[in-house]
Amino acid sequence: MTPSVNVVAIDGPAGAGKSTISRQLARVLNLPYLDTGAMYRGITCAALRSGVDPTDDSAVAHLAVSTILDISDDALFVDGVDATLDIRGEAVTRAVSSVAANSEVRRELRERQRSWVQERGGGVVEGRDIATVVFPDARLKVFLTASPLVRAQRRVAQIGGDVDQIARDIAERDHKDSTRTDSPLRESVNSILVDTSNRSIDDVVKQIAEVFRG
Ligand code: DC
């Protein structure tokens, strides 16, 4: 797990702007981009497709080891079948927290994430445990956050729906992600905290890129 020198670890709760900011940052820094949330969603999708109960830890653990995830900047194929849209759908979003709390799944995906970065010599990697667990020696660690209302409004702008309901869903998922035993969502000791609530994407990306370049 050594050469994570060129890693920018971006963690934070849903709706903090992680994906948009990480993608743009990767372009600016000319580094590859990895969305680790999409990998947890991919395993969840594999479970739902094959009729495996997402809360059946041992069945999902088996599935995680055997499922082929082919991830690129704008698509995810699960066992050769395009799952790009499915992984953002309601069914996967509802079930993914249980899959992400499964320690065997986390162990498997953590190893894949490290190999992915090692093969490419670095990357902008976003998730919930990137700075704390996956790449504790990342060159730069960023914890993105935003107010609950702004986060809910952003989700509504992306996927539609009722802002109060989405705010409740986000709060529930945050709670699950930050109270689980294995690799909970947590700010790393030496990360920089960036509140994106009232800031433009360009502005945040510029700030992080400047810190990265030193
Ligand atoms: O970022 P996202 O909403 O696509 O993440 C989907 C789920 O996966 C969410 O419940 C958090 C979880 N996750 C995680 O536990 N660890 C990561 N490194 C990335 C995502």
UniProtKB/TrEMBL annotation:
GO CC annotations, alphabetized: cytosol
Keywords: ATP-binding, Kinase, Nucleotide-binding, Transferase
All residue ranges annotated as the Cytidylate kinase domain in the record: 8-212
Catalytic activities: dCMP + ATP = dCDP + ADP; CMP + ATP = CDP + ADP
Signal peptide as annotated in the record: none
EC number: 2.7.4.25
Gene Ontology biological process terms, A to Z: nucleobase-containing small molecule interconversion
Listed name of the protein: (d)CMP kinase
